[in-house]
Design a protein that fits this description.
By secondary structure, this protein is of the alpha/beta class. The protein has a single domain (24-208), classed as Maf protein, CATH 3.90.950. The protein has 7 helices and 7 strands; from the N terminus they run αβαβαββαββαβαα.
Length: 213
């Protein structure tokens, strides 16, 4: 007489799926800018961590504005990636320039007044570098140039803008997503790049390095 065969243990498909799934790599934004965070959220990307990169942002001798923006983005990404092994890291830098002259991040009323006086009635360029590093250390970067034409500003308009305070810490002394949007006659390029992070290029870099939502 044969003894009854023991029933084989069963494993649900759900259990197999959970046990075989690999954890998703973290996504780190190497910037404290609320504007860049808002832009990423606009396309349903939510960084897991915010870790600003602090470094010397002064241009090197004979460095062009284009090269400056790209170099700083790449250096910021590399610096923060060193603190987050196995993560995706996004970094960016924005430079506002007239010709080869780089305008400062306005910190005083004198800064913003000088910037707006220079930008008034003329076109300028906004160079935005963005860099991404993958969990394996592979990197990719892009430089996005946007041409912005500002209307001629009256003294009263400059005074009112200074009074608003929204220019503080902004490259070139203005925030296009705020009151200064009313100063722009024409924009050729990436609006989100002027705000601080070119979304199309950032998404392409992430996907090219294997990032998935």
């Amino acid at each position: 007489m044969t003894s009854p065969r023991a029933a084989s243990p069963t494993v649900s498909n759900d259990a197999l799926t959970v046990s075989s799934a690999e954890p998703r790599p973290l996504l780190v934004l190497a910037s404290a800018s609320p504007r860049r965070l808002d832009l990423l959220r606009q396309i349903d990307i939510a960084p897991d961590r915010i870790d600003p990169a602090e470094l010397d942002e002064r241009a090197e001798p004979k460095e062009t504005p284009r090269r400056l923006a790209l170099r700083l983005a790449e250096e910021k990404a590399a610096l923060v990636a060193g603190r987050h092994a196995g993560a995706f890291v996004i970094a960016a830098d924005t430079v506002v320039c007239v010709g080869r002259r780089v305008l400062p991040k306005a910190e005083t009323e004198a800064d913003v007044r000088a910037c707006l006086a220079l930008l008034s009635g003329r076109a300028h360029r906004v160079e935005t570098g963005v860099a991404v590093i993958s969990p394996t250390g592979e990197s990719a970067s892009r430089l996005v140039e946007t041409r912005v034409h500002v209307k001629r500003l009256s003294d009263a308009e400059i005074d009112a803008y200074i009074e608003s305070g929204e220019w503080r810490g902004k490259a070139g002394g203005y925030a296009i997503q705020g009151r200064a949007g009313g100063f722009v006659l024409d924009l050729q390029g990436s609006y989100s790049g002027v705000v601080g992070l070119p979304l199309y290029e950032t998404l392409c870099l992430l996907q090219g390095l294997g990032w998935r939502p």
